[in-house]
Each structure stands twice: as C-alpha cells, then as structure tokens.
Specification:
- By secondary structure, the protein is mostly helical.
- The protein is about 70% helix and about 5% strand.
- The chain is built from eleven helices and two strands, in the order αββαααααααααα.
- Strands 1-2 form a two-stranded antiparallel ribbon.
- A hairpin with a 4-residue loop joins strand 1 and strand 2.
- Helix 7 packs antiparallel against helix 8.
- The radius of gyration is 23 Å and the shape is globular.
- The N terminus is likely disordered.
C-alpha cells in the first residue's frame, strides 16, 4: 500500500491486490438517474466503495446504542435504582452505549473524513468502550459472588464503597487502553506492525487478547463458585422443608444454574473467536476473517441488556412505568427466584 493511497475506510487492512482482483460497485451519475455499475480495477473505485461488513458493523452499533441507551436512561431517571447491582448494570450499559456510538462514528468518519486523526479517535473510543464492557461484566460477576457469599452483610456502606472503587478502576484502565492508539501506539507509520484490526499494532492486540483470556478464566472460576453456593443453599432449604427433587424450588434452582451457564457461554461464544484469531493472525490475513470474528463480538453488547437489565424485575417495573404509566400484575407480583442470580 503506497503512502499516497487514501485512508482505508475499514477495520481491517485491505489486501494489496483488492483493486485488481475484486469486482467493485461505483456510482455513476448521468442526466436522468443514478445507476450502480460493476467495474474491475478502476482507479477511482476505492473512493466510492462501501464495504458491506462496515455497514453491518454500523448497523450493529446503532442497535447497540439504542438498546443500551434505554437502559442508561431508565437507571439514570429512577432514584430507586442506586444499589450496587444497578450501578454495575448501568456501567455495563454505558460502556456498550459508547461502543455502539464508536462503531457508528467510525463508519461515518472513515468514509466521509478519511482522516488518520478521526480514525484513531474512533478506534480508541471503541477499544475503551469494549474494554469497559468486559470489565463491567467481571465486576457484575464479582458483585453476584459477594452478594451470595456475604449475604448477611452485603447491603452495607462498605459494599457501596467497594462498588465505586471497582467502577473507578475499570473505567480508568479502559480509558488508558483506549488512549494507546491516540498517543502513538498504532501502525499508521509502519504498516508491517499492524494487527488484524487497523490501526492497532500486533503487540497491542496481543495484550488485549491475553487480558481477555485471563478475565474469562477469572469469571469462569467465580461462576463455578456461585453455582456451588446456589446449589448448597437450595439443598439446605430442601432439607428444612422436606422438598423433593421435583418441587418448583428445585426446578428454579436448576434454572438458575442453567442461566449462569448461558451467560458465560454467550460471552465466550461472542468474544472467543475474535480473541483467538487476533492472537494467531496478522495484517496479511484476508480481511474477511477479521470481520467474520469481529461482528459476533459486537453482538455481545446487543445481548447484554437482555441478560442483565431487561430480565431484572426492578428495571422491568421502571420500564413499564416509563412507557405506559402502569405495572402489569404479572410483573408486580413476580417473586425473585434462584434463576435470577
């Protein structure tokens, strides 16, 4: 890629043979109408080319921003949602909201401005936001573990202080990670140092990927401990009330354990392909592979509100009040069960 070529309007470094091998769609204007004509090897084709994968990422970003913006708005406007759990859910929603905005801004800045500075800023925003999202998931896991392990002393000022400390740390670390591309840790000057995600360097992405694997291992260990605590509590209650294995309480306890497995499995399914691929690949790999693993990773931010926010009965009540000014009886009378862990 020559220095005179325009800024690549995509997340992945384009294959140098793209212009000569790919069939591209460009806009040709005439006096009556606009038509799309396929041209091969046209020198101006790349100026008009819109990568369909970038459109998918932009669309995902818009959906992520809308969905998580609703969660942030509900928590912000409802003073009753100020417990540590809701602060962490709000942090997760805010991080995903910023990630969605970052994806949308990257698309428009890349195709309209084609500026290195704008590209670095939007990529930095996306890195910081997704880092804060993953850290928030870890913080929620820690909070769930503490709420079960220290059930008698969980609702205290000490817990609230610990929650604020986690929030400051996770956003501080995420901000530092997002500033790295802006402060010079990028591959714009030396293309050979690029990773599968332009303009992040191979070393930068390797650090992020290894950090993710460590965080995932910690979350896995915490969820195993949570399952043990939930099953132990369920067994104690069953013994005290002489419940049988087929009773509703046993069923809901199993449902709670299944929910934990679903949470962790969804998180791994979304992020693990991109994490592993970014460790073994570099900028010479086809961009298709980068997009095929990066797009599912963004879907985790679409799924997060469904798992952590919209399933919560307090947030459900707040949403019903905000939308129609009433609370359905099925929501108002729903009791908390072990499946809500």
């Amino acid at each position: 890629m020559s220095e005179a070529s325009p800024v690549t309007p995509s997340w992945a470094t384009l294959d140098p043979t793209w212009d000569s091998q790919a069939t591209q769609w460009v806009v040709k204007e005439n006096a009556t109408a606009e038509t799309f004509t396929p041209t091969a090897g046209s020198p101006d084709a790349s100026d008009w080319l819109v990568n369909p994968w970038d459109v998918v990422l932009c669309t995902s970003g818009a959906l992520i921003a809308c969905e998580n913006g609703l969660v942030v708005l509900v928590i912000w406007q409802n003073p009753a949602l100020r417990a540590p759990m809701f602060l962490l859910i709000g942090s997760l929603a805010l991080a995903d909201l910023l990630a969605g905005l970052g994806l949308v801004l990257h698309f428009f800045f890349a195709y309209l401005l084609r500026s290195d500075s704008a590209q670095l800023l939007t990529v930095g925003l996306v890195v910081a936001s997704f880092s804060a999202s993953i850290f928030s998931l870890l913080a929620i896991t820690i909070d769930r573990y503490l709420s079960l392990y220290y059930a008698l002393t969980y609702n205290s000022e000490r817990t609230l202080t610990f929650t604020y400390t986690m929030l400051v740390l996770l956003w501080g670390v995420s901000l530092c990670l997002g500033l790295l591309p802006v402060t010079g840790v990028n591959c714009l000057a030396v293309e050979s140092t690029c990773s599968v995600v332009r303009p992040l360097t191979k070393n930068n992405v390797a650090v992020l990927s290894v950090s993710f694997l460590l965080l995932f291992g910690l979350m896995l260990q915490l969820y195993v401990q949570i399952c043990k605590i939930v099953l132990h509590h369920a067994h104690q209650i069953a013994l005290q009330h002489h419940f049988l294995a087929a009773t509703p309480h046993y069923v809901t306890t199993r449902k709670g354990v299944s929910t934990l497995a679903l949470i962790l499995g969804t998180f791994a399914a979304c992020w693990m392909p991109f994490t592993v691929y970014s460790l073994v690949a570099d900028y010479t790999y086809p961009p298709l592979y980068t997009y095929a693993t990066l797009v599912p990773a963004t879907y985790n931010s679409i799924i997060n509100p469904l798992i952590y926010a919209f399933r919560n009965q307090e947030i459900q009540r707040a949403l019903w009040l905000a939308c129609c000014g009433c609370i359905p009886a099925s929501v108002a009378q729903r009791a908390r069960t072990p499946s809500d862990v």
